[in-house]
Structure formats: C-alpha cells, structure tokens
Amino acid sequence: MTEAADTGAYAGTQAERSVPRSRSLSAKLLLLTVAFVLFAEVLFFLPSIASFRMRWLEERLATAAAVATILVQGDPTTLSRSAQNDVLAAIGAKAIAVRDGGVSRLLVVADMPPEVDEHIEISKASVLSSMPAAIDTLLFGGNRMLRVYGPVGESAKEFELVIPDYRLHRAMLVNARYIVFVSLLISLCTAALVYAAIDRIMIKPIRAMTRSMLTFSDAPDSPAGVIVPEARSDEIGLAERELAAMQTHLQRMLSEQKHLADLGLAVSKINHDMRNILASAQLMSDRLRMVKDPAVQAFAPKLLRTLDRAVAYSENVLSYGRAQELPPARRRLRLAQLVDDVHGLLGLEPESGIEFNNAVSSDFEIDADPDQLFRVLTNLCRNAVQAMAGVADSSIVNRLTVYAEREGSVSRILVADTGPGLPQKARENLFAAFRGSARSGGTGLGLAIAQELVRAHGGTLELIESSGGRTVFAVAIPDQPVRLDEARHGMRRPA
What we know:
Layout: H1 2-16, H2 25-73, H3 81-91, E1 95-100, E2 103-109, E3 118-121, H4 127-140, E4 145-151, E5 158-164, H5 166-218, H6 235-288, H7 294-320, E6 331-334, H8 335-346, E7 354-358, E8 365-368, H9 370-388, E9 398-407, E10 410-417, H10 424-428, H11 445-456, E11 460-467, E12 470-478, H12 484-492
Parallel strand pairs: 3-4, 7-9
Antiparallel strand pairs: 1-2, 1-5, 4-5, 6-8, 9-10, 10-12, 11-12
C-alpha cells in the first residue's frame, strides 16, 4: 500500500514538471506584450480623440468665420430665408454671429435652439483640458447643442457658431474605430515581433537550461545531462556556463561520494576482520618480550607500539562507522624517537637503495598527539618512499630526510626527499581525496588525512618545494596556549 502511494506521488511530481503551453513563459510573454501595448495605445487614444474634437470644431468655426466675413462686407438682411438655410446647412450650424468692438451681430440664423448645452472657447481650450469633454461627447453625445466662439486667424473679430454635436459625435465614432483598429493591429504586430525576438534571445535558452536541469536531476551521473553553453557574452551565456560548471562539479562530487561510500563499506569490512587478526598478532608479540635474544628485545617494543596503534585505529573506524578523527590528546614528545618508529614501520631494506636520515635533534620536543603525528609522518614518508622506489640506477641518490626546527612557539617538521617531484596535476589537487595522487592507482587519501590531522592541532601542512631532485613538505604545529589561571596555579605550587 505504501509503495503504491509513493509511486503515485512520484508520478504526480513527474506530471507537474511539464509546464502546459498556456502557462509557459512564451504565452505569458505574448499576453503581457499585447496588454502593455494596448495600455500604451489607450494612453495615446485619450489625447488623440480630444485633439480630433478640437480640430473638427476649429474647422467649423473657420468656415463660419469665412462666411461671416463675406456677409459683413455686404448686407446680411438681403439674404433670403432659403439662402440662409443653405449656408447653415452647408456648415451644419444653427446660427453664425460676429463680435466686433464689443458689439455682437447675428448674421445668419435658422431655428434657434432654446438653450445651449456647452460653451467652448477655442482659444483657451487645450488637449489636456478637452479630454473629459471629448470622452463625454464620444460616449453620450449626439443630441446636444454647442456654442463655439473665438478669434480665427489674425482677425481682431470674434466669431460665434451655434452647432449641434450629432455630426461631431458620428465623426468621433468613426475616428475612434479607426484608432482602435490601428492600435490592435500595432499591438499584435509589436507583440509578435517582441515575442519572436525575446523567444529567440531568452526563452529558448531558458527552456534549454530547464530541460538540462530536469535531465540532470533524473540521471546526475550521465554526461548527457550537462548543458553545452552557447558562445554568448550576456547574462544568459554566463548562466549557461555557470550551470555547466556546477553540473560538472556535482558529477565529480557524486562520483567521489560514491567512491567514498564504497571505500567506507570496504574499509569497515576489512577492519572488522583486521581487528581480530591484529589482536592475535598482539598476543603473539607479547610473548616476544620473554625471549632473551638481544635482537628480539631491540625490535619488540617497536613492534608492540605499532600493533597498538593499528588496533586502536581499527577500533575507532568500527566505533564511528567512518574515519572520524578524535580530538588530539596532546603531550610533550621527543620527536627523534617518533621519527625512528616511522623509519622502522617503513621497512626499508638496504637493497631498496633508499637512505633514511633522521636529522631531528635528540632533545627536540613537540607538543602533539603521538598517534596522530605518527600517522602524519608515516603518510608523508611513505609517499616519499613510493616516489623514489623502482629506480634501478645506483648512481641516483634516493634519500629521505626528516628534520625539525622551532620558530617561537611553533614547531616545524620538514620531510624532504630527492625524488622526481610531484606532477602538475598532483600539485593542483594536493590535499583533495581521490584527485591528489601522484601515482597510478593511488587514492590521494594520505595527504588528505595528514592535513586533517594537522589542522586538528591548529597547524598547517604545505608543500614548500617540488622539483626534479627535491620535494619538501612542512608540518607546522603551534604549542598549546597556556591558560593564565593554570599558569598562576603552577607558579604557586612548591618546587
């Protein structure tokens, strides 16, 4: 039942990963482009329709002014009623008047309306102030009477025109339909062009990155899931390159994690049996103390210390399930004796052609965990021995030297060999597990473990020199800081 539910949940998640076309970025981009262009056209429509209304009224007033000028030159009373009606019908007005010197004369009049709905002074009207009236005429006009007045051209006279707005209303409707049609056409064309451009520049690369991320999440170990970035210098190109680098880095990390998991399982199995073997070897080595042979008595203590370290480390690995290092239990050590123990563990035979030189002064002391420092020096010395091993030419000097020096409160241990030096790839990934190995088949764990142990002491492990004929590693470990209250307590203690 649980498995079925989990399968259904996974199927639902898979379905959600495919975005419907109606909710895709392309559809949203198209709709937003059309909406924004239409909004811009609406902002353009208001002043446009107001300007059209003003121009229409100005043209009618200019025509009325021309007629009024002719009539003023003659005698308006000589015009018959039918002639006056023809003049007003041509303009579409009800009356024409002129004001000159403060005196107003009614030149032509037809059926005079009982009242005027709106008075418009053309000379003082602006596009911005005319927009509310233009919208009102467009929506509710057609049965109103307008009085339009003002000067025309350079004439000092002021002309007046009384005109119904039904022709203006019809003309504004025709103009509004034209503007709406043109606006819609511009919106669609603009949206199509903007959509095509942005889809090519942005949406397709984003869609490709989305597909790459989904493919990578389904199979992180497959190289096919890594995106191939385009040669672009903009933000999309940068995002593609960063995504490719991140995917490559994650693949490498996943491979290393899998390697570590497999190695951890193998180490746990090996340590489980190795602990029993080492315990048996420890019991047998205890009997060596009873042998009176001087040679046996000379190497028996070193063998016992080595077995004790191996048993303790195996138990730590099994206890924690992984190679988790305990905090260092620091003591004052005679470093020369510890280096001798490392030399004994290396098992260098005379026929190997490798010389071991313990150049540490017999009275040199260091503040460190004996077991952890032993492991650090063992890893460094073993790497040096492996680098120099296999050289058949007896004229080549293969020498491993360990020496130490003190700089204030910091002890420096230097491990130098006359091997061929580290290759460039090994120097770039020196302390990275599985990548810092200088030899084929190596894991690179030795230096990674050594650096971890030295850092636990608050020190540093670094490569000082690496060239053909000389490689030097330096281990710097500072002394433990002395607490002031403990130092005062020690000063009061009697000698």
